[in-house]
Structure formats: C-alpha cells, structure tokens
C-alpha cells in the first residue's frame, strides 16, 4: 500500500493534486505535481511513475523517513519555509470599528480577525461603499440585513 493508501501501481496512479483538511494524523496539507505553465493542446498528465516535480506543503519540515514513505526516489530536494496555511483564531479582543469618526474610516478593521490581501480588497470595497452611501445620505443602504446574502454571489 502506498503513502496515500492507494493499492494501484504507480503507473496507474494519475492523481495530480491531494488536498487535506485540518487533520492531526496527516503530515501534509497538500501534495501536487507541477504541470507546464503553457499546457500544449493534447497534453495528458503523465502517471505518478514518470519523473516530475512535486510540490508538498506540510505544517513541519519533513524528515528523510517521511519523504521515503512518500516517494520511492528523488533526484533533488528544495525546501522553502512558507506560511501558506495560516491558523486563524478568534481575535483576543474586540475588533476595531470601521467608522472611527465622521468621514474617517479604518480600512483594515477586519485584519484583527484574518489578515490577507483578499480581506484588504474586500474591506476597501466595503469602506468605499460605506463612504459613498453616507456622503449621499443613503443611510438605508448601510447595515442592510440581507446585504450579505445579496453580495455573496457578487464576490
């Protein structure tokens, strides 16, 4: 049986991406083979038995023994420490308000809960809408109860 629990021969194993959930038993978060950036017409992903580049994300650096369990052989190994899977916890204190004062907004109030470029982009959009609606005295468009449901499909 293989590292991933498959009984198939490596030549029959064509899966290229393995993603895991928060599992205390798993030593990896993801495992994937690298395909060409420009995929030519008619490209067929080679089976796992063919030499290729694999990318592994793991919460801790992998030991030689763990790598040997995962791969039969390898030509080279490159390790880069990367915070690709942040661990989110509820903020230790109350998040700051978006509205600090009349016409003064705190764009990154949500960063206390989760920090990412995407969160900043969403915050910027939300604050721009908030400022616009308040500038034009459209208070009915601020804090709408069904706004989240309507915007979910938009974002």
UniProtKB/TrEMBL annotation:
Keywords: FAD, Flavoprotein, Glycoprotein, Lysosome, Oxidoreductase
Listed EC numbers: 1.8.3.5
GO biological process: prenylated protein catabolic process; prenylcysteine catabolic process
Organism: Dissostichus mawsoni
Cofactor field: FAD
Any single Gene Ontology cellular-component annotation: lysosome
Main location: other
Keyword Metal-binding included in the entry's annotation: no
Chemical reaction(s) catalysed: an S-polyprenyl-L-cysteine + O2 + H2O = a polyprenal + L-cysteine + H2O2; [(2E,6E,10E)-geranylgeranyl]-L-cysteine + O2 + H2O = (2E,6E,10E)-geranylgeranial + L-cysteine + H2O2; S-(2E,6E)-farnesyl-L-cysteine + O2 + H2O = (2E,6E)-farnesal + L-cysteine + H2O2
Compartment(s) of residence: Lysosome
Domain of life: Eukaryota
Protein's name according to its UniProt entry: Prenylcysteine oxidase 1
GO molecular function terms listed in the Swiss-Prot or TrEMBL record: prenylcysteine oxidase activity
Record domain Prenylcysteine lyase: where: 3-144
Pfam family membership, one: Prenylcys_lyase
Function comment: Prenylcysteine oxidase that cleaves the thioether bond of prenyl-L-cysteines, such as farnesylcysteine and geranylgeranylcysteine. Only active against free prenylcysteines and not prenylcysteine residues within prenylated proteins or peptides. Involved in the final step in the degradation of prenylated proteins, by degrading prenylcysteines after the protein has been degraded.
């Amino acid at each position: 049986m293989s590292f991933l629990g498959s009984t198939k021969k490596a030549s029959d194993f064509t899966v290229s991406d393995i993603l895991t959930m928060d599992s205390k038993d798993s030593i990896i978060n993801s495992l994937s083979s690298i395909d060409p950036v420009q995929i030519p017409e008619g490209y067929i992903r080679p089976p796992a038995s063919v030499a290729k580049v694999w990318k592994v994300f793991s919460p801790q650096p992998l030991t030689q023994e763990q790598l040997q369990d995962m791969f039969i052989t390898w030509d080279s190994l490159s390790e880069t420490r990367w915070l690709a899977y942040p661990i989110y916890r509820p903020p230790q204190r109350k998040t700051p308000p978006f509205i600090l004062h009349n016409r003064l907004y705190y764009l990154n109030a949500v960063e206390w809960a989760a920090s990412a470029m995407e969160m900043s982009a969403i915050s910027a959009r939300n604050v721009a809408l908030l400022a616009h609606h308040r500038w034009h005295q459209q208070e009915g468009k601020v804090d709408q109860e069904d706004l989240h449901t309507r915007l979910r499909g938009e974002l």
